[in-house]
Amino acid sequence: MFSLRDKHLADDIVSQIKKAEVKLKFMHVCGTHQDTLIKHGLDVLLQKCGIEIGQGPGCPVCVTTPKEIEEILVLAKEGKTIATFGDMTRVPGVTSSLHQMKAEGCDIRTVYSIEDSLFLAEKQKEKEVVFMAVGFETTAPTTASVLLRDPPLNFSVLCCHRLIPPALQAILDMGEIKIDGFIEPGHVSTIIGVRPYEFISNNYHIPQVITGFEPIDLLMGAWMLVRQIQHAKAEVENEYTRAVKTQGNKKAQQIMKQVFEPVDIKWRGFPTIPQSGLKLRKKYAKYDARKKYEKELDELAEKEFAEPVGCLCGQVLRGLISSKECPLFGRQCTPDNPVGPCMVSSEGNCNIQYRYSKK
Amino acid sequence: MGKRGYIVCLAIPGKIVEIDKKKQSVTVDYGSGTKRKANISLVEVKIGDYILVHAGFAIQVLDEKEAQETLALFREMLSLQEDV
Question: B52 vs A33, A69, A131, B42, CA distance in Å?
């Protein structure tokens, strides 16, 4: 459609960054950004320019907690038909994984879209279909849209949606690492627009650039952050103007607001982050798997589940270490035999690092 | 999608070639002969629009003019910086 590959322009951006002679640390929160960075060697290129750039908690599958995985496993065991996105099925829980339960005869379906699970519920009325809804602001409106269509009552949602801006704030409040700038996720931003990030620049004086996914986009995003720092500015800039409008997608925002309300929620590797999750409003309680199957899920009510032994996904997600610093990386933990979710998901830092270091 | 499996925050651009009668979904041409349906409940679209599709849903209409001018805009920004 539009070619955004231009070597000369890339060279020009890199030489501008070099000229600035900086030593900075940037964070992004998106698996697709990480994929572009590692695939094209941009992480190494930027390192040579004095910029370290790493992935924070930007992988919905990775930040889903062990307890949420146990919830869906209990429902699978109870004979419900479980539908979710492919990566989610392979994340190891404490007791099992959806993938393993499928092998043991449970009804687990991998779907491309929440609509596929709705069609399944419409066609097979005798089945209780539970969709495990993971994803950030990009995916949450798709769940909301389906719930507004009055699905049949044998359909429900285990809502695990989360919001990006509160997580960015949590990372800054925890103060474990120094962050000089945020590369903000392009596709989350197509929905939420520019405004929801502004409090971070205003309250923490941190520059931010909403960035697209081509190599040129990421180099440009890094350069725009450097330029802000050189001019002592802290603003939210939009590099991805071809897809992100200042106001975002208002229709999607409206649909989300109708169906969900914000809720405090734990993220893997993090404590509870205030108002960073979404739950179904009362009006949609009949589709809320946690309400509908309260009795079945009661056994988990007071329980807490630890992360896998030795797994450092929590530290990877908080940006404290790179995947390769985890002693399990590439040894006990590989994509074929993952210990933690960051090695399972194609958006997970460990999976991406492993995939490209092997080629 | 494809060999790499599903990616939660990935969205893929494609061109709308057909809108269904109920105006709930469209056929999207992703190039190289790949066509797929996408739900349009989150956007206002017309035939010929380029959209970003995520998990079976169009999430935004791409600004074609903006996209075509992206590289020129980047060059301009860089040259302004050099002048400073």
Answer: 16, 30, 23, 11
Q: Which of A:128-147 have CB within 8 Å of B?
A: 134-136, 138-139, 141-142, 145
- Same fold for the pair A7-60+165-238 and A61-163+249-300: yes
In DSSP terms, A83 is beta-bridged to A109, A131
DSSP A294: H
Phi and psi (nearest 5°) for A340? -120, 165
Give me the CATH code for the A7-60+165-238 domain, please.
Answer: 3.40.50.11750
Query: What does DSSP say about strands A51-55 and A108-110: parallel, antiparallel, or unpaired?
Result: unpaired
Structure tokens at B13: 């651009």
Interchain pair A191, B9: CB under 8 A: no
* Architecture of domain B9-83 in this structure: Roll (2.30)
Contact check, Cβ <8 Å, B78/A87: no
Packing angle between helix A114-123 and helix A140-147, nearest 10 degrees?
30
Residues of chain B positioned with their CB less than 8 A from the CB of A135 = 8-9, 55
**Could you say which residues from 63 to 82 on chain B have a Cβ atom under 8 Å away from some Cβ of chain A?**
63-64, 66-68, 70-71, 73-75, 77-78, 81-82
Token pair belonging to A130: 């539970």
Q: Please state the pTM of the whole predicted model.
A: 0.95
pLDDT given at position A1 = 52
Contact A277, A136 (CB under 8 A): no
Question: Alpha carbon of B40 to those of B3, B11, B49, B57: distances in Å?
Answer: 26, 14, 12, 6
Mean pLDDT per 10-residue segment, chain A (359 residues): 79 96 97 95 97 96 96 98 95 94 97 96 97 97 97 98 98 97 97 98 98 96 98 97 97 98 97 98 98 96 90 97 96 96 95 86
CATH of A61-163+249-300, one of 1.10.10.10, 3.40.50.11740, 3.40.309.10, 3.20.20.70: 3.40.50.11740
- Here the tokens at position B66 are 């903006």
In whole angstroms, give the CA distance from residue A28 to residue A283: 36
Question: Which chain A residues in 167-196 lie under 8 Å from chain B, judged by CB atoms?
Answer: 185, 187-188, 190-191
Fill in the amino acid letter for A56: G
Query: Residue ranges of the domains in chain A?
Result: 7-60+165-238, 61-163+249-300, 313-357
